[in-house]
Specification:
Helix content is about 55%, strand content about 15%. The chain has helices spanning about 1-10, 25-35, 45-55, 65-70, 80-90, 95, 110-125, 135-145, 155-165, 180-205, 210-220, 225-235, 245-265, 270-285, 295-300; strands at about 15-20, 40-45, 60, 75, 105, 130, 135, 145-150, 170-175.
């Protein structure tokens, strides 16, 4: 994948790509774009990630305006809807400084209505917008194997495909403006529910005196097998919860999912329960841990172990 993506970058004559947001996901995505042969300019509020990108072959920017003025495509990887609104729609934001025809790809997970509003404003400014949230966590961002669900116009998706293929493995155009965010909401509903069920299963196994590591091995090979067990199983057994995707962010994402469901008149009772579990986990000081740390809350509810604040 890296070699093919690198060829695409060279074919684009070192197309200049700006990346705004160099956090857990944005930093490795920017690094993969550098490896693919793109001229990458990065910016975030903290200087450390920008310096690391520059050391890896990218270039440092001093502001959103600095990134946008030099870029042919701008990628945003930000925490929430207000961040995207500020960076893109703000008085000194992307649209204020964008070149005509700029490709704007938002990899953030935000409300579908936010993406729709950004798309409308972008087209008025002569910018080509796509909402393209991702799934795969930090590991997928590092390995360049993310799943990308893109909303927007088909011709803009086609133009962005080489960039998508530099950071992801499964790349699908799922519909119009905001459609990517709706698919991401569905993704987060499923992931949250599976984490909760895997947590309950581990607590049940351990309470029954069954070796959980052996049980996971056989469960992975049957119909119950899933990516949560594949990617998170060992760290859950070790009670190691270094954040690849924080409980705080998954809590935010399920809020989006529930809001979309309510607006469409769709009952989502299981998602509501998982959202409440995440709320309880945050109240116990677990919000900064990986979302698989929901296991600690399930243990507490089962009377098996106290929640240890800050445990990682």
């Amino acid at each position: 994948m890296g070699q093919a993506a690198g060829q695409k970058g060279r074919e684009a004559n070192m197309e200049t790509v700006g990346v705004i947001g160099l956090g857990v996901m944005g930093a490795p995505m920017a690094a993969n774009l550098v490896k693919a042969g793109y001229d990458v300019i990065g910016y975030c509020r903290s200087p450390g990630p920008v310096e690391r990108l520059a050391a890896a072959g990218g270039r440092a920017a001093t502001s959103v305006a600095d990134v946008t003025a030099r870029a042919d495509a701008v990628l945003t990887v930000l925490p929430d809807s207000p961040d995207v609104e500020e960076v893109v729609l703000g008085a000194d934001g992307v649209l204020r400084h964008a070149r005509d025809g700029l490709l704007l790809i938002d990899f953030s997970t935000v409300r579908p209505e936010t993406s729709a509003a950004v798309a409308e404003a972008a087209r008025k400014a002569g910018v080509r917008p796509l909402d393209a949230p991702v799934s795969g966590g930090e590991r997928g961002a590092i390995d360049g194997t993310l799943s990308i669900m893109a909303g927007g116009r088909e011709e803009d998706f086609a133009a962005a495909r080489p960039l998508f293929e530099a950071v992801g493995r499964t790349v699908v155009h799922v519909g119009g403006d905001g459609a990517g965010q709706t698919v991401k909401a569905a993704n987060q509903m499923i992931v949250g529910g599976v984490i909760a069920l895997v947590s309950e299963a581990l607590v049940l196994l351990e309470a029954s005196g069954v070796p959980a590591d052996s049980a996971l091995t056989v469960l992975k090979g049957g119909l119950a097998g899933n990516q949560v067990m594949n990617v998170k199983g060992e760290s859950m057994l070790a009670r190691s919860f270094e954040p690849g995707f924080r409980i705080d962010l998954h809590h935010k994402d399920l809020g989006i999912a529930l809001s979309v469901a309510r607006s469409k008149g769709v009952a989502t009772p299981l998602t509501g329960v998982v959202a409440q579990l995440l709320t309880a986990a945050r109240a116990r000081g677990l919000g900064s841990l990986d979302h698989s740390a929901l296991l600690l809350l399930v243990e507490e509810l089962a009377g098996r172990a106290p929640v240890r604040e800050g445990h990682a």
